[in-house]
């Protein structure tokens, strides 16, 4: 517990063990926070503009690997309650969090700090994290934090809505790719996990990171980033900031969607920077295939003029390699690429 950034950071200078090497630290560059990451109005997908929305999502996923959605159908009250209960969790007194803190990677619901490799990593991340599965909900909910008292009730409702939203977006993507209806609505999207990030105010944001550069290893991520800036996406070798928008979700393409689409959709590298003024709390809802699900480029995309870029594999094989490669993009996908 004493390792959590939130338990010791007050009035301290940044410890050496949190200082990134010059080539990976954010530095003092001003990163453009312009609205280049596309914003998609999902309400239009219900009406005659559906084709245009499909096209917009497809292009955003191809070009950036990221987009934001507004008018997404998840109630604003539920989103506010959820964000509040996430913040309340991190603000609980130490004794209420002690039972959930664990360094045992096998614990399905756990509070930890930095990354799963705290004891072996060279530099620590300026964040605390709570992670737990959401499927099957009836069983998972029993292992979620018992406090704050409304955590289980609110987060259960939220996880149902986040999954629905994810499936809606996957359906639009599948339409755009020509994969037909329901393509992703099975084992490919069966597993769901919530990963909360809490980044306390940091004494020197130029030297450290909240999350270092990575791609999400799953299918699709629905991120609730709240109203504090910190997310950056790598596009053509430059970092661009993702502006926090009121009542929006950030959506990004995971490695598996890149593979299934045979590189038509892009899984973009991203990171989170810290700030010196306010704490930032975010919640990533990861939609993933089940462990034994077979992943391969969709058969209908492969034809005379297109050959598969990847071989078929079990999702758990990918995860094992991903963890081992500690988020290195090339090394994460290399063993699954077909050459020739
Ligand atoms: C993640 C992630 C970004 C953020 O949890 O995978 O990229 O802004 N988080 O918290
Ligand atoms: Ni991520």
UniProtKB/TrEMBL annotation:
<comment type="similarity">
    <text>Belongs to the iron/ascorbate-dependent oxidoreductase family.</text>
</comment>
<dbReference type="InterPro" id="IPR027443">
    <property type="entry name" value="IPNS-like_sf"/>
</dbReference>
<keyword id="KW-0479">Metal-binding</keyword>
<protein>
    <recommendedName>
        <fullName>Fe2OG dioxygenase domain-containing protein</fullName>
    </recommendedName>
</protein>
<dbReference type="Pfam" id="PF14226">
    <property type="entry name" value="DIOX_N"/>
</dbReference>
<keyword id="KW-0560">Oxidoreductase</keyword>
<dbReference type="InterPro" id="IPR005123">
    <property type="entry name" value="Oxoglu/Fe-dep_dioxygenase_dom"/>
</dbReference>
<keyword id="KW-0223">Dioxygenase</keyword>
<dbReference type="GO" id="GO:0046872">
    <property type="term" value="F:metal ion binding"/>
</dbReference>
<keyword id="KW-0408">Iron</keyword>
<dbReference type="InterPro" id="IPR026992">
    <property type="entry name" value="DIOX_N"/>
</dbReference>
<dbReference type="InterPro" id="IPR044861">
    <property type="entry name" value="IPNS-like_FE2OG_OXY"/>
</dbReference>
<dbReference type="GO" id="GO:0051213">
    <property type="term" value="F:dioxygenase activity"/>
</dbReference>
<feature type="domain" description="Fe2OG dioxygenase">
    <location>
        <begin position="189"/>
        <end position="289"/>
    </location>
</feature>
<dbReference type="GO" id="GO:0002229">
    <property type="term" value="P:defense response to oomycetes"/>
</dbReference>
<dbReference type="Pfam" id="PF03171">
    <property type="entry name" value="2OG-FeII_Oxy"/>
</dbReference>
<dbReference type="InterPro" id="IPR050295">
    <property type="entry name" value="Plant_2OG-oxidoreductases"/>
</dbReference>
